[in-house]
Amino acid sequence: MLKKRVLSGCLLAIIALAVIWIDQPIAWLTLAMAVVVALALNEFYNAVTVYLKSQPFKALGIFWGMLIVISPHLQIESVLPFLLGSFSLTSLIYLLTLKDRTDAFPRWAWTLSGVIYIGLLSSFWVALRELPMGREWVLWTLILTAATDTMAFFIGSRFGKQKMAPSISPNKSWQGAIGGAVFSIIVAPIFADLLGLPINVFVAMLIGLLVSVAGQTGDIAESLFKRNMHCKDSGNLIPGHGGIMDRLDSLLFTGIVVYYYVIWFIQ
């Protein structure tokens, strides 16, 4: 299992580096994120269907989730409120066309929650890439997220005693969480300097801590979803890692942290 996990992780890292760095002739990161969001939403809606016996409007949710991901490229003022508002309106109107409306609002709520949780939060990676020095910021955020996940896994496996949230994720420990946070703090200024980011050592360490906390919070949030769905993994697409959502969980929370730091304090 560990060998599969490492090999899959290395392959994912190579693909991620390529789509982050290359933006010609198309925005490869945007295309990759749109595909990832479609796959993750499919896992999300399938889990709801199988384990909660509710049927979200899968096609509608996937289409709108992908549209929100590419929205940073759309030249429309306040595009996100527009997309979320129009989705809410059109999907509620769609409810009125159903012949059987007994489970209509739970189906609508699960559809909307997937769009917001996966589509909206993923869009901040595309938005971050579109900023000046965007690929450097994206790569730095990805490195900090991976550093946290990797060190938390190894420290937690070796030294984890005090469980962080045993009712949600029994394998998460405070030792692993602290180890991941410390490692993120250490590597943050190193890679910020290597990538030429306009950020000093102290601030880099602070953002490293915030990214680590955000990533681990995202991990626990996805664990809560799986706990509610009574499933161990969101899927089995990635050998040794589970499904797309199992790899996307931390990233959903870390991209937004660095994005708002850049637009509030750097731009």
From TrEMBL:
One of its GO terms (cellular component) is plasma membrane. It comes from the Bacteria. This is Phosphatidate cytidylyltransferase. The gene is cdsA. PANTHER family: PHOSPHATIDATE CYTIDYLYLTRANSFERASE. The lineage of its organism: Bacteria, Bacillati, Chloroflexota, Dehalococcoidia, Dehalococcoidales. It catalyses: a 1,2-diacyl-sn-glycero-3-phosphate + CTP + H(+) = a CDP-1,2-diacyl-sn-glycerol + diphosphate. InterPro entries: PC_trans (IPR000374). Belongs to the CDS family. The chain crosses the membrane at residues 28-45, 57-74, 80-96, 108-125, 137-155, 176-195, 248-266. Pfam families: CTP_transf_1. Pathway: Lipid metabolism; Phospholipid metabolism; CDP-diacylglycerol biosynthesis; CDP-diacylglycerol from sn-glycerol 3-phosphate: step 3/3. One of its GO terms (molecular function) is phosphatidate cytidylyltransferase activity. Its main location: membrane. It is found in: Cell membrane. Its EC number is 2.7.7.41. It is a multi-pass membrane protein. GO terms for biological process: CDP-diacylglycerol biosynthetic process. Keywords: Cell membrane, Lipid biosynthesis, Lipid metabolism, Membrane, Nucleotidyltransferase, Phospholipid biosynthesis, Phospholipid metabolism, Transferase, Transmembrane, Transmembrane helix.
